[in-house]
């Protein structure tokens, strides 16, 4: 059929309007496009527990190379932000360059010493602590000479990393810094320095703390029993730590696990010390949700007597109630955690197997 010139012009004009609309609307479509459909998405790598922040030009210029290497090494090893460690070192002693009393010898007016300004009492009771001796404190041996020397940068930075980790870092660095030096103006100053040292201009938290990495853990459970255990345990996130606590408002590390198993109709030992020998030992890499992961940390701990326990919720992740100053119950990574002793599977204990059998057949 032959089209008149007028009709042809009308059709061409309509097509032009449609094309113009597409051009106008397409940016909006791109903005609202889900990140998983876009090659440019910036979702966190949820399996990367040791992300390293790049150093800014000002950080490279200001931090002595030896100190920068130590901040990065021990930040990664212990699992805290290296730029927070570096910011503490800058704020306390200008990375050991200060000539004020207590930096290279003796103590300052408050009793602090060394490049990271530990109190002697917090370090271990004296400036040089043999690692083979019994002591209470954060004395650490970063250079491997067998002595925790408060004036040695390697030892002091490792000790500072451990203290920050113990008190809430990397998820809650402000709380950890407040424990380090109990003044909020100090916390603000350190965070500001840390931002300047990072190429991104930020203080990043590990990907495990991102809501985007909070996968549907219950749905991924290997069976219904484990799903019930995880469902109860994960519902306790955000509640506070309480030594000896078994809920419902607060828990300690073993208490939340004990309560989670009870929610599934199972009884296991109450404390970390008794949970450790109870479950069947599981080789690292073969752990699965519902298993327990133990650490040589906490009061009364020893090489075969763990003081801390977490509940495996997926490969590399655990739910834990860590300590009163470590923030609320949460899901964290166990891959980067030091002093891990091993895994156990309470569901393979003969008593638990008998309980499971009875749950499946109540008439037995």
User: Segments where pLDDT lies below 50 for 5+ residues?
Assistant: 1-12, 14-43
Helical segment count: 12
- Proportion of β residues? 5-15%
Helix content: 25-40%
Oligomerization category of the chains in this entry: single chain
Listing every helix as H and every strand as E from the N terminus to the C terminus, the arrangement reads HHHHEEHEEHHHHHHEEEEEEH
What's the count of strands? 10
Mean pLDDT: 84
The main sheet comes to: 6 strands, antiparallel
Strands side by side in the biggest sheet: 5-10-6-7-8-9
Class by SSE composition:
alpha+beta
Distance between the termini: 85 Å
Tell me the radius of gyration: 27 Å
Q: What gross morphology would you assign?
A: elongated
Descriptive report:
This protein has a six-stranded antiparallel β-sheet with strand order 5-10-6-7-8-9, with helices on one face. A two-stranded antiparallel ribbon has the order 1-2. A two-stranded antiparallel sheet has the order 3-4. The longest helix is centred in the first third of the chain and has 28 residues. The protein is built from twelve helices and ten strands. The chain is elongated. The N terminus is likely disordered. Helix 3 packs across helix 4 and helix 4 packs across helix 8. Helix content is 38%, strand content 10%.
Summary, kept brief:
This protein is of the alpha+beta class. It contains 12 helices and 10 strands.
